[in-house]
Amino acid sequence: MAGKVCIVNESNWEQEVLNSELPVLVDFWAPWCGPCRLIAPVIEELAEELEGKAKICKLNTDENPNIAMKYGIRAIPTIMVFKNGQVVDTKVGVQPKEVLKSLLV
């Protein structure tokens, strides 16, 4: 993955997402998911463009099923935006970059 995208999992979820001072966009994805591969470059571009303004993370739902279950992830890719540890927005499926960017700024 790109250098600016934060990879989250069950061990760093609380620190990276819930305790972040910046808004956090989390891409819930899996390696076998075609649409997830389509949106990956968009996620990487956002991470570059919003560096210092927001945190862009990816969570592999196959490797972290407990977090996916906790947030009711039923389809991927699912994009969730967290502010102050709370989910403030959710989008399911491939989204245009501008839509995702508008959730954060």
From TrEMBL:
Q: Entry's CDD domains?
A: TRX_family
Point out the annotated site residues (description: Deprotonates C-terminal active site Cys). D27
Does the record bear Glycoprotein in its keywords?
A: no
What GO molecular function annotations does the UniProt record carry, in alphabetical order? protein-disulfide reductase activity
- Gene Ontology CC terms: cytosol
The record's keywords, sorted A to Z, are: Disulfide bond, Electron transport, Redox-active center, Transport
Disulphide bond pairs: C33-C36
Give every Thioredoxin domain span: 1-105
**Which InterPro entries does the entry mention?**
Thioredoxin, Thioredoxin-like_sf, Thioredoxin_CS, Thioredoxin_domain
Q: Which SUPFAM superfamilies match?
A: Thioredoxin-like
Under Pfam families, the record lists: Thioredoxin (PF00085)
- GO terms of biological process kind: cell redox homeostasis
List of catalytic residues: C33 (nucleophile), C36 (nucleophile)
Site (described: Contributes to redox potential value) = G34, P35
Recorded family membership: Belongs to the thioredoxin family.
Task: Report what the protein is called.
Answer: Thioredoxin
Natural source organism: Persephonella marina (strain DSM 14350 / EX-H1)
